[in-house]
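can u do me a favor
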């Protein structure tokens, strides 16, 4: 399943990932720290995961980079709420791809098991589902509501969901499911496990975002925001609710872990692996 793992392939993988990191930095899809993180994650994923790993990672990276550029007008209003712009930094890269890379490294210890590959794909399906939901959810004609209690929240707020965003999340998960399926022998099971893992992971992201993620308040603008210590207006913000260290990156990381675990769990239950 992994193809032939070798030091030559690992070397080529890091060469390729440095090229992609550099291009993404030039195109301002990644910050400098983000490009360095992408070099590490990409090197591991290409080197250990081979063609399948590369296909999954690049499907996620290219589709999310393009979507985050699209619909700029609708996203202008988000900038006072969200902490970071469309240029992804190292914490964001590790939050989305770190778990998947660790799964592939763990797979080196269990070369005959399909489970590490499924967990890797489930993690990336969750990252893709969550990114698609965020980037396409802004087009929703309906305002977002908290997944937990249905309360209206500002656009871009973590934990807010719209029907369009949920549909985008499902499609984003299925796309990774389809790509994953091309590189395994258990076709339908992989499609089902990875797609469902991705969708559930993304729902978990919204639930954590609604329940525990840190949300700040700007007294000057009378607005909720993820920005701290200072709002986009320059004023100091204070913690309104949630857990201080549980920021968007930590929530995203948890989303990928759960996505991978659900995909793996489905395979274990179906196959008794
Ligand atoms: Zn303000």
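np, heres the sequence
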């Amino acid at each position: 399943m992994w193809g032939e793992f070798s030091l030559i392939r690992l070397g080529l993988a890091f060469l390729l990932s440095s090229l992609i990191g550099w291009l993404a930095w030039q195109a301002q899809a990644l910050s400098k720290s983000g490009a360095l993180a992408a070099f590490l994650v990409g090197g591991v994923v290409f080197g250990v995961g081979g063609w399948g790993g590369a296909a999954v990672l690049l499907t996620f990276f290219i589709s999310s980079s393009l979507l985050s550029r699209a619909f700029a007008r609708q996203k202008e209003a988000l900038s006072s709420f969200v902490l970071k712009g469309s240029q992804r930094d190292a914490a964001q890269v590790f939050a989305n791809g770190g778990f998947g890379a660790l799964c592939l490294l763990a797979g080196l210890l269990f070369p005959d098991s399909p489970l590490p590959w499924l967990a890797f794909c489930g993690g990336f399906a969750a990252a893709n589902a969550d990114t698609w939901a965020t980037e396409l959810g802004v087009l929703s004609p309906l305002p977002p509501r908290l997944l937990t209690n249905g309360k209206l929240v500002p656009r871009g707020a973590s934990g807010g969901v719209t029907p369009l965003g949920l549909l985008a999340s499902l499609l984003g998960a299925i796309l990774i499911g389809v790509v994953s399926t091309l590189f395994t022998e258990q076709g339908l099971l992989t499609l089902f496990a990875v797609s469902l893992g991705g969708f559930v992971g993304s729902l978990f992201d919204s639930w954590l975002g609604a329940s525990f993620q840190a949300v700040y308040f700007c007294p000057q603008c009378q607005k909720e925001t993820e920005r701290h210590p200072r709002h986009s207006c320059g004023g100091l913000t204070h913690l309104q609710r949630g857990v201080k260290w549980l920021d968007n990156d930590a929530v995203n990381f948890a989303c990928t872990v759960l996505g991978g675990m659900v995909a793996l769990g489905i395979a274990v239950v179906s196959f008794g692996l």
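The radius of gyration is 18 Å. hope that helps!!
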